[in-house]
């Protein structure tokens, strides 16, 4: 099928900003690890045929157990990541056999089915897409001494989320180029952009947070609890 879609879910980080002994992707939300909440969103999505989960070496075993226990049968591989997010994504890409790839953070469990669909459709029409929200604050560029340098026009600023969707062959080329040039980016789109791929933004929701610091857990608990109440 020429539009098959695989997902690389990266979960090999240590969560230093969260500061918990347990890596944040394995903390429980209503009794279930955050990473399982994230996997379930893609497991149930009709567009997704294959999932590769990238995790820490010491976590592969328990992740494989969850894949069985939660019947996540789209998970084709659970593999070990690298030192930086970019290295983890690269390893995941090498495992996929689909035409399209979505890269998603394991700690963004609140992405909606409709957002995944919109990202897929935009990538089909534009070539590549990223989910994002317009920034709400005024942003300033500041130098190392704390002096304000400039105030960029907020109307052109977006906070970038995942999923980020590309043709697998395009993203692999972009990753190879970045590796060759020693470029390290904080997202996948930045690698694609520098290799000349046009990336289009899909407006998402402020609820699709990346669970990063302790206050994000309060929001996550609240969100999961309210969903449970909605379904009662
Ligand atoms: N070497 C790495 C680093 C990060 N990630 C993943 O990339 C996503 C986004 O990264 P971030 O939130 O920054 O996670 P951590 O690196 O774990 O957090 P911190 O920077 O606070 O240590 C997370 O799902 C994380 O597990 C990864 O797979 N491999
Ligand atoms: C890819 C990403 O989620 C876009 O917001 C993010 O850049 C990855 O995490 P980090 O906070 O930059 O490490």
Which descriptors apply to this entry?
Nucleotide-diphossugar_trans; 11 strands; 7 helices; two-stranded antiparallel sheet; binds the ligand C[C@](O)(CO)[C@H](O)COP(=O)(O)O; 232 residues; alpha/beta; Spore Coat Polysaccharide Biosynthesis Protein SpsA, Chain A; 25% strand; binds cytidine-5'-triphosphate
Q: Write out the strand line-up for the largest beta sheet, numbering strands in chain order.
A: 5-4-1-6-10-7-11
State which percent range the strand residues make up: 15-25%
N-end to C-end Cα span = 39 Å
CATH superfamily: Spore Coat Polysaccharide Biosynthesis Protein SpsA, Chain A
> Looking at the structure, what is the overall shape?
globular
Biggest β-sheet: count, sense, barrel?
7 strands, mixed
> Remind me, CATH topology?
Spore Coat Polysaccharide Biosynthesis Protein SpsA, Chain A
What Rg is obtained from the alpha carbons, in whole angstroms? 18 Å
Return the CATH architecture.
Alpha-Beta Complex
Query: Can you list the ligands bound to this structure?
Result: cytidine-5'-triphosphate, ligand LQXTBERG
Order of helices and strands: EEEHEHEHEHEEEEHHEH
The total strand number stands at 11
The DSSP helix count reads 7
Percent range of helical residues: 25-40%
CATH class descriptor: Alpha Beta
The stretches of 5 or more residues where confidence is low (pLDDT under 50) are none
Number of domains: 1
Site (Transition state stabilizer): 17, 24
Function: Catalyzes the formation of 4-diphosphocytidyl-2-C-methyl-D-erythritol from CTP and 2-C-methyl-D-erythritol 4-phosphate (MEP).
Site (Positions MEP for the nucleophilic attack): 154, 210
GO molecular function, one term: 2-C-methyl-D-erythritol 4-phosphate cytidylyltransferase activity
